[in-house]
Design goal:
By secondary structure, this protein is α+β, with helices and mostly antiparallel strands. It has one domain: Rubrerythrin, domain 2, CATH 2.20.28. 19% of the residues lie in helices and 22% in strands. The protein contains two helices and three strands, in the order ββαβα. It has a three-stranded antiparallel β-sheet, with no helix packed on it. Strand 1 and strand 2 form a beta hairpin. The protein is globular, with a radius of gyration of 13 Å. 10% of the residues are buried. Mean pLDDT is 78; it is low at 49-53. The structure holds zinc ion.
Length: 69
């Protein structure tokens, strides 16, 4: 199973979840934040999902959206 990086919109906590591609694409699974239990979370791209040229252009692994810098 692939691992996806998620970020909590409530407390900014980043966490990784394992889910099947079917589960993620259908959006049927809500991944709750392990810190505050909120399901208000969004998918962020992990380092391996971004091409190096994009990384150079935007800076950081996701253009700053994941707070990795
Ligand atoms: Zn949270």
């Amino acid at each position: 199973m692939p691992i996806y990086s998620y970020k909590c919109n409530q407390c900014e906590h980043k966490f990784d979840v394992q889910a099947s591609i079917e589960e993620k694409e259908k959006g049927s699974v809500k991944f709750s934040c392990p810190e505050c239990k909120s399901v208000d979370t969004k998918h962020v791209f992990s380092l391996s999902a971004i091409f190096s040229k994009d990384k150079n252009e935007k800076g950081g692994c996701c253009g700053g959206g994941c707070g990795c810098r």
